[in-house]
Design a protein that fits this description.
Largest sheet: 4 strands, antiparallel
CATH topology of the largest domain: paralog of FGE (formylglycine-generating enzyme)
Strand content: 5-15%
Distance between the termini: 53 Å
Strand order of the largest sheet: 1-4-14-9
Order of helices and strands: HEEEEHEEEHEHHHEHEHEEEE
Helix content: 10-25%
CATH superfamily of the largest domain: paralog of FGE (formylglycine-generating enzyme)
Radius of gyration: 27 Å
Number of helices: 8
């Protein structure tokens, strides 16, 4: 019996040694393998170092883009600007989510009485203990055809009031389409005054009750002080085609540009900086939600707007001092054809093949595989605009950001806009030219595209199996 006991102890000891690496430093075992696939519709931008700033004459003598050597980490970037149809997916998602919530709160024929998220987990609001079930997969009965005769349609509140309808046609009230999300202000949390503060006695020992941290966590009270809430209207401002150009007949564009199928693959415009940022947050959550339904960990790195330095590095296409994304110093190719959609010559808008915006990817890409980095529509970046930011920003992943509040001065709401648009002269198409617009302003010539940071790949992973992450 004793021999069996000694044998069992020996086996347990040996097994324990194997699990701990025999006392050697081997890291935490059974960590999941990770392989970052190329996101759909994006192209890989390698890390690199380049001279950021003016490579040609400074036409307006603005002195806001002094040459400076910048190093940028690798990332992914959308091959084209976000199109009307892609942005419409965001709008429809918000619309349908509001409709599902209204139907659930109305206690419709969806059954059990509790509110659930998209993974089916109950959500409690306050202490009322009143819940309704939301069936996120149920087809929405917009016209109330499944309701009994005389029963009011709970979705009626999503439509325009009858007195505001054009031609008495039922239309969704786009003013009610809001996207609500939260984000963590990490730069604010990183300030010295907001770090963890440990109280110590004269001997240097941490004070406080045994097993607990001191109460002085951050200067503002607690970690929730860094969680910010955003509520953003998502529908584009379709009237920018009229408001941007006085005494010009742009009513057809205002009426049709966003919703008509003819413009599905044109770049979305009329979207301000906050709406573009909200789209990036939604895109991240949309992919993470899908992965969770596949019983996988959320592997998606955040989608976001590019920093100013990332945008310029990507636009250069690997060339060091080229003035334009295609690498040459001219706006035409060898056949005399214009290489972008802009305002050539003395205002001959149609000379380049388009009057206003054109379909994305109409012109050849740069050497990174990116389309329309010059012309068509200018693009929002994540960076705040300051005339002297080149002088005080770091030279590694250079970026200057500021999240302005509603009541902040207008000068604090300026965001860097890059690339030039269909209405701009050739100077604004240069990869080094800087401009700005206010974060709460939407224009008919400004769109955006998303980027995603590159996290790297395990050397043992097989790239051919990367698609399994999404299957």
């Amino acid at each position: 019996m004793k021999k069996l006991l000694y044998l069992a102890v020996a086996i347990i000891t040996l097994a324990s040694c194997r699990n701990t690496g025999s006392g050697e430093l081997t890291g935490v075992p059974d960590r999941p393998k990770f392989y970052q696939p190329d996101p759909y519709g994006m192209t890989f931008i390698p890390l690199g170092s380049f001279t950021m700033g003016a490579g040609d004459q400074d036409v307006p003598y603005a002195n806001v883009h002094q040459p400076k050597t910048i190093s940028v980490a690798a990332f992914y970037m959308d091959e084209t600007e976000i199109t009307n149809n892609e942005y419409r997916q965001f709008v429809y998602w918000v619309r349908d989510s509001l409709a599902h919530t209204i139907l659930g709160n109305a206690g419709s024929d969806y059954g059990e009485h509790f509110v659930s998220d998209k993974q089916g987990q109950p959500i409690q609001y306050g202490t009322t203990q009143t819940y309704y079930k939301i069936n996120w997969k149920q087809k929405i009965d917009w016209e109330g055809k499944r309701l009994q005769e005389g029963e009011p349609n709970p979705l009626e509140e999503m439509y325009l009031p009858e007195e505001e309808r054009f031609f008495r046609r039922k239309e969704i009230d786009t003013r009610k389409l809001f996207y609500r999300y939260f984000w963590v202000d990490l730069p604010k949390a990183a300030r010295p005054e907001n770090r963890y503060i440990f109280d110590r006695d004269q001997q240097g020992r941490i004070t406080g009750e045994e097993g607990t941290y001191p109460q002085n966590i951050v200067a503002e009270g607690n970690r929730r002080a860094f969680v910010k809430e955003e509520v953003v209207p998502v529908y584009p401002d379709t009237l920018v085609w009229i408001s941007d150009f006085t005494y010009a007949y742009n009513e057809p564009m205002a009426k049709t540009y966003f919703w008509h199928p003819a413009y599905d693959h044109y770049p979305v415009v009329g979207v301000n900086w906050k709406q573009a940022e909200a789209f990036c947050v939604w895109r991240t959550e949309y992919m993470n939600s899908y992965l969770s339904t596949r019983k996988r960990e959320a592997l998606v790195n955040d989608f976001r707007l590019p920093t100013e330095s990332e945008w310029e590095w990507a636009a250069r296409g690997g060339y060091e001092l080229n003035p334009y994304p295609w690498g040459g110093p001219y706006l035409r190719n060898q056949k005399g054809c214009f290489l972008a959609n802009f305002k050539p010559n003395r205002g001959n808008y149609v000379a380049d093949g388009g009057l206003q915006t054109v379909i994305v990817a109409h012109y050849p890409p740069n050497d990174f595989g990116l389309y329309d980095m010059a012309g068509n529509v200018a693009e929002w970046t994540n960076s705040a605009f300051d005339e002297s930011s080149y002088n005080f920003t770091w030279d590694l992943n250079s970026s200057y950001t500021y999240h302005a509040n509603y009541d902040d001065p207008a000068v604090m709401k300026r965001k860097v806009v890059r690339g030039g648009s269909w209405k701009d002269i050739g100077y604004f198409l240069q990869v080094s030219t800087r401009s700005f617009e206010y974060q709460d302003s939407a224009k008919s010539y400004i769109g955006f595209r998303c980027v995603q940071s590159y996290l790297g790949r395990n050397k043992d992973d097989n790239p051919s199996k990367s698609s399994e992450i999404y299957n």
